[in-house]
Amino acid sequence: MAPVPASHPQVAVTLVLLLSMLGLAAGGKVLVVPVDGSHWLSMREVLDSLKEKGHEVVVVAPEVSLYIKPSKSFVMKTYPIPFTQEELDRDFHEFTQDTLKEGSFLERFVRIYQRFEKNSALLLSTCEHLLYNKELMRYLEESKFDAVFTDPVIPCGPIVAEHLSVPSVYFLRGIPCGLDFEATQCPNPPSYVPRIFTEHTDHMSFLQRVKNLVFDVPNLFLCNFFFQPFSKLASEFLQRDMTVLDLLRKASVWLLRLDFVLDYPRPPVMPNMVLIGGISCTQEKPLSKEFEAIVNASGEHGIVVFSLGSMVSDIPMKKAREIADALGSVPQTVLWRYTGKVPSNLPQNVKLVKWLPQNDLLAHPKTRAFITHGGSHGVYEGICNAVPMVLMPLFGDQMDNAKRVESRGAGLTLNILEMTSEDMSNALKTVINDKKYKENIKRLSELHLDRPIHPLDLAVHWVEFVMRHKGAPHLRPAAHDLNWIQYHSLDVIAFLLAVVLLSLFISFKCCMFCCRRCCFKKGRTRKPAKSKSH
Amino acid sequence: MAPVPASHPQVAVTLVLLLSMLGLAAGGKVLVVPVDGSHWLSMREVLDSLKEKGHEVVVVAPEVSLYIKPSKSFVMKTYPIPFTQEELDRDFHEFTQDTLKEGSFLERFVRIYQRFEKNSALLLSTCEHLLYNKELMRYLEESKFDAVFTDPVIPCGPIVAEHLSVPSVYFLRGIPCGLDFEATQCPNPPSYVPRIFTEHTDHMSFLQRVKNLVFDVPNLFLCNFFFQPFSKLASEFLQRDMTVLDLLRKASVWLLRLDFVLDYPRPPVMPNMVLIGGISCTQEKPLSKEFEAIVNASGEHGIVVFSLGSMVSDIPMKKAREIADALGSVPQTVLWRYTGKVPSNLPQNVKLVKWLPQNDLLAHPKTRAFITHGGSHGVYEGICNAVPMVLMPLFGDQMDNAKRVESRGAGLTLNILEMTSEDMSNALKTVINDKKYKENIKRLSELHLDRPIHPLDLAVHWVEFVMRHKGAPHLRPAAHDLNWIQYHSLDVIAFLLAVVLLSLFISFKCCMFCCRRCCFKKGRTRKPAKSKSH
């Protein structure tokens, strides 16, 4: 008998995990292909944790970007793109101004559509400049990464992962047209899973369910419209037919920034989906002296934190004056993140700041309310710190996020374009003074925070898992190997129907045959009798 | 403005969790309605942990049972049932003997069916004696429990939870007829989720998919056959119409003893499902001197652990002699859990023991193979400790478990009724000497153990969660409030179809009307012309 080496796997694996937790294990090598904007901000925290655990983190990013800047936590490899920082900043500024510009529905639709088209072209071109940068790609090929960590909303990372044949971990909130459901084989019944942009809850009336189903139709075109150019790019670059859906199906693990406290208990989570909603709400750091002084000076009334997110820090003057009026009507000190021209009617209780430590301020016991655009990071920070919200959604999933907070009685939603100064003042006073809002957000917060492991640790665990095991094929549902007909067992049902019908047909024919033989016999035996009688 | 009390929820909740982890927090009160047999064994470990965390645990069990015995970890409340311990033991012994008796398929089927019918009646009667025990029920009503922790395979616990209006946590491997899927609104496509008793993997051929679908049909009757008496009992006792399905839908959290390493990545996990497969594989304890001596004396060849589980410890003599012969053909020392008459041909290398510390022995580096009946606890302990297996399934989910291990190249399955001594010898030698088996089970083990939190801690967390928050309504999918037609959007589709058809009909009618008017006009303008010409 061949001797089997003595081993003790349970202890061994525990040891590896322990070592890796202490950051002593030989680190892995992870390539990060990020998406700029707020998407980058929470991803960065995972990179810091990965670095702390002893892994080598390499980030590839265009030379010109909004937020992706070098850090001690990672090696940054940049590639040139045909835009300057000024052009990007201007483009971005125009985007937020467009969003806040008033007008008829059609005007706004055309404006947003044109902007969307322009941005898509920019994102595609950026991806092309990464893939066809020979020097950088050679470096990536030679680097022997253990995993690619990427946000697939812009499917450039998945193309790189496929080219390098490295397993990938996705980090996202969702893909607006629902391609994430298709790519994970995750059922998504329109009867109780609200579609994006519908602002529905999970409990819908008949007409809402009709709207929900109808909203699925444009998704079919939207997915194609946005991802088709990337499919073309992938096929050209990889030199084989490859759609974005094909690429996304290959992900090892999907880290989804969802939590059922905010996002309705949607149906199912597939084996390779991990929910990490609330990842950006980490232990708060002490406030700087400047902010500490403002908060302490606020007295018994406390403060209100006001930020329209990382994307919008400047709004048209008319709107700014209205908002300033509203903010003047509450006794709280308002900390407003705002970089535009100071409105002339700015009340004494409002402090304008270029940047604010949002999570740390929300965590302060003196914070009474949070005025937010409803981005998922901000909303989760509001929930985590149990601060009632006034939501002024602007674009993307923000309308839906706002509706979700409102439907749970933890905040009020305003239409920033249509609201008056009085509307805002009333909303702010209500969420601060009506105890119901504080109670509801406190309950949500308790549910959200009562979890066996922090989402950040969970995210890091799964990136390390994929690095350690070269993917996670044991989490891949066999549904990926079935076509639509097979998945729904239509071929099996057709076969069984055919068998039943054939059996019936044969039984019928047999009966007929027997009857005929009987009749014929009778006929034959009767006939001679008849002929005899004649 | 009403002053809002200063609070710091993130720290507060963290503190509660921390205190609860240290067992210092004010404990909750949990009522346990267990199911006897192997189901009880892994549940008991959760109770030990709950007790350690400072909770009060009350177990209700019949006076006569196989394994449910008093312990320091819980208060035990018993109720009389009309069976003696001798009757129960005899009944149980007969059950295992029936299972191991040879015979034609029909004979075996009739035998098992009769046994099943008898056992069902016994379980129902036991439940009736709990529910109608006035003194015990009054005690339960007065005890003000925070949660009911129960195995719903015998739906007595869910009836008690409903009667007491206390949220419940379920602890189970699954319900054979698939009622767990229905009760959780969990999709369960027969195209890639293998049905119990089919022995399929998740990758099925066309004919296997046909068989898988066909196997769903008897499930409809089986569920009804087994659970109908409990539905009747529930309706009578609760004095309102109530089916077992209605009861199961109310569970707050389902703790499922599944892990995708063994159980194929089946489709979806609903928000209130938590996977805790491998819960019984905890840190091994040092072996007693007796076992340590046997293991050390085994030399370089090491040992083989052999147990047919908690339910079977005695087998017919003819089979025992065949097995003894097979065990004598390997150089390993075999530790066999066996309480029957000693076979006369027992080889020197086989040590018979009445009980063995299975997990601790499997964890020993000298263990080369594990001969098991394929019960889920044993299989997970084999995986956890990376020991290749020879599986001899007897009943229940054991055939499927065995097939799952075999399909992953980590063990070999034998039919205990049909196998010869040589078959068993060959299988045992193969899993020990063919390195492939050890490599495969080692890989499975590494994947299984690489998890962010131990399943036991996860189970305890969710029981505590339900106690702390009085249930988990935020995890309840809205699908529960839809009927079958609504869930599948059939009413919406019918409505949209009607709208489309009506629009087409109206358009058609309008066209016809216009055409007719045109024709009529033409006709009228032509007619007078005609009459004029006449």
UniProtKB/TrEMBL annotation, chains A, B:
Which keywords, in A-to-Z order, does the entry hold? Answer: Endoplasmic reticulum, Glycoprotein, Glycosyltransferase, Membrane, Signal, Transferase, Transmembrane, Transmembrane helix
Grouped into one coarse class, the protein's main location is endoplasmic reticulum
Instruction: One GO cellular component term, please give it.
Output: endoplasmic reticulum membrane
Cross-referenced InterPro entries? UDP-glycosyltransferase, UDP_glucos_trans, UDP_glycos_trans_CS
Q: Which family does the entry's similarity section mention?
A: Belongs to the UDP-glycosyltransferase family.
Name of protein: UDP-glucuronosyltransferase
Question: Catalytic activity annotated for this protein?
Answer: glucuronate acceptor + UDP-alpha-D-glucuronate = acceptor beta-D-glucuronoside + UDP + H(+)
- Keyword Cell cycle set for record: no
Look up and give the organism this protein is from.
Anas platyrhynchos platyrhynchos (Northern mallard)
Gene Ontology MF terms: glucuronosyltransferase activity
Signal sequence span is 1-27
Q: How does it sit in the membrane?
A: Single-pass membrane protein
Which Gene3D superfamilies does its entry note?
Glycogen Phosphorylase B (3.40.50.2000)
Q: Where does the protein end up?
A: Endoplasmic reticulum membrane; Membrane
Q: What's the Enzyme Commission number for this chain?
A: 2.4.1.17
Q: What broad class of enzyme is this?
A: transferase
Q: Which SUPFAM superfamilies match?
A: UDP-Glycosyltransferase/glycogen phosphorylase (SSF53756)
Please list every transmembrane segment annotated in the UniProt record, as residue ranges.
492-515
